[in-house]
Specification:
The chain is mainly alpha-helical. It contains 5 helices and no strands. It is globular and about 55 Å long. The relative contact order is 0.14.
């Protein structure tokens, strides 16, 4: 009986973690869209909510799943484009899983994996949505992700790691 209760508590914690990350990501992205217009979308973008992508290093796969769900919600709100909804969410899931599973507890690795994953995935499909060359797509996403993740996400991750002791 206690084993079943422990499993239930673990599942509840995972669902709660995923829900919190989904809500945070979607809310930040939608707010940025309302306040900043196309800053969160478009061929040149700095999506502030992507600062959350390295955080699964601390909170694990449930956080990565939440970030993917939050991206789907935000992209559905802002663009309604199925390509953006599906592949943007996959980019966040890959970034989060890499941060959770292979960053080895090193914040700089969690950030770098996130930047690379989103740059490669989003940069690959952006020319399908906007009339820009592939090289410009990769370059603009790389710059925007680097700003969001290294300038905001990295310090945030370091603070959270320090708080966890």
């Amino acid at each position: 009986m206690l084993k079943g209760l422990a499993t239930g508590m673990k599942n509840a914690k995972a669902i709660t973690t995923a829900s919190i990350y989904a809500a945070l990501y979607a809310t930040i992205t939608i707010a940025e869209t309302i306040i900043g217009g196309t800053l969160a979308y478009g061929p040149v973008q700095v999506r502030v909510s992507d600062a959350l992508l390295p955080l699964p290093m601390i909170h694990g796969i449930p956080a990565a799943i939440g970030l993917a769900i939050g991206c789907a919600v935000a992209n559905a709100y802002a663009t309604g484009n199925i390509i953006d909804m599906v592949f943007g969410s996959i980019a966040n899931l890959v970034a989060g899983v890499l941060a959770a599973k292979i960053s080895k507890g090193k914040p700089i690795l969690a950030c770098t994996y996130s930047v690379v994953a989103v740059t490669l995935i989003v940069g690959s499909y952006l020319p399908l949505l906007f009339p820009i060359p592939l090289w410009l797509s990769y370059t603009s996403i790389l710059i925007g992700e680097s700003i969001a993740i290294y300038l905001i996400g990295y310090p945030l991750l370091r603070i959270l790691v320090k708080m966890r002791g």
